[in-house]
Amino acid sequence: MADNELVAFRERWNQELKSRKEENPLVCASSSSSGDDPGQLGHKDLNKSCDTLKQKESSCTEDERSGGNAAAEAGQPQYVSIAHSLLDGRTSPLLDRIQQEKMRRKRQYHNMTNMCSVSRQQQMQPQRKVKKEEELVDQLIQDLNEVNDIPFFDVELPYELAMKIFEFLNCTELGRCAQVSRAWRVLAEDGVLWFRMCQREGYHQDASVSSSPCWKSTLRDCRNSYRAVCSNWKNRVGCVRQLQFELGKILCNVSSCDSFVLAGYTSGDVRLWNTLHWDLTSSYLKTNSLSANTHPRPHVSHVQVNSTVAAASYEDGCVDLWSTETGGEPIHHYQSPGRIQAFGLSLDSPVLVSATGTKVRLDSADDYGHWRTVCETMLPKTVESLTLVPNRTDQSPLVVLAAGEDIYLLNPQEEQPRTLHSVYGHPVTCLDASNTLSAFGVKRTGWAMHDGGNK
Known about the structure:
Blueprint: H1 3-22, H2 29-32, H3 38-72, H4 78-88, H5 92-147, E1 149-152, E2 155-158, H6 159-166, H7 171-177, H8 182-188, H9 191-200, H10 215-234, E3 251-257, E4 260-265, E5 270-274, E6 283-285, H11 289-292, E7 300-305, E8 309-314, E9 318-323, E10 332-335, E11 342-345, E12 351-356, E13 359-365, E14 371-378, E15 385-388, E16 399-403, E17 406-410, E18 418-422, E19 428-433, E20 438-442
Antiparallel strand pairs: 1-2, 3-4, 4-5, 5-6, 7-8, 8-9, 9-10, 11-12, 12-13, 13-14, 15-16, 16-17, 17-18, 19-20
């Protein structure tokens, strides 16, 4: 390249650098003052500057390749060093400037955005206040809904449905569920769950949900009492209480039901105790006028008691019936022609049956509490034992009787007793009955049996 051309190239390059310094190199002044989006303008200017730099680099590369030695001898000005860096591929000064310009435009954009948001907040402040009140109402409604909703992980179930699920759990599982969360603890300690569990285990069958303030503690107490009873029974630990009436009187017969204890003596006296009140004396049960005027008074032969009435029979065939609530005078009385061999009182209904020889008499109380004779019948043999079929409150009473080798079923609605068992030479020794079954023991005798004893 000629010397004149090199000088001309240097002058043009120097003038171009001065002009770009005045116009803020890499960015056009006109574009920075425009009202367009700063982010978009920054991208456009950077693209333009990069294109310009690429064009200059190509032109400078061709010229400097021919006259690079002359420029090295001329004292190395700034534009020559930039030209050399462009020729060698070192563009770090330009990249630093580009990064600085990007940061500046980004700050400018954020400042403008913040100013717009502040002005918009001032305009929307009344609307936000109304919206905040609406949000508070929605939050209140949501809180009220959460009272009846139990969160099961990511699903919300109604309280009643969650209660149905928890009914299948035992005590240990309910205790573990109570440790999951507060909502589960409220559900696991619900009184209805523990009330039903208490009844499933056989405690407080006649109680209601409102009978106990805390059924969880009630069930715990019942279980502790049951364990204590089992432990005392195995270890032969117990407490003996004496219900002593009079010294010198002989106890003839005794019966108990629930908390009542009934005793009859050879003196003709009948006494009733309530074991729930040990500090009280026995209730005095007066005899009928016929037995009271007899000297000496007849001995008591049988006594029976349930939760509502107490009954006693005497050696002269008299039968007295008292109320366990009032005591005092008998509420029902009748006289049999002879000594009573068998005597029975239903445990769950006001039904009384007695047998004198072969004659059987059945008395019952109506809805008004008036006692009357329901049935009288005769059997072929002397009645030795009898029992009333339980759980017949709303039905006709049934009596199972043992007479010699025969077992009979007495139903007041039938004309004659029905024979349940009859085997010659096998006398009945004991008898019991349930709502659907009858059990008895027999003495094995006769030519067909090679081994004696009871069965």
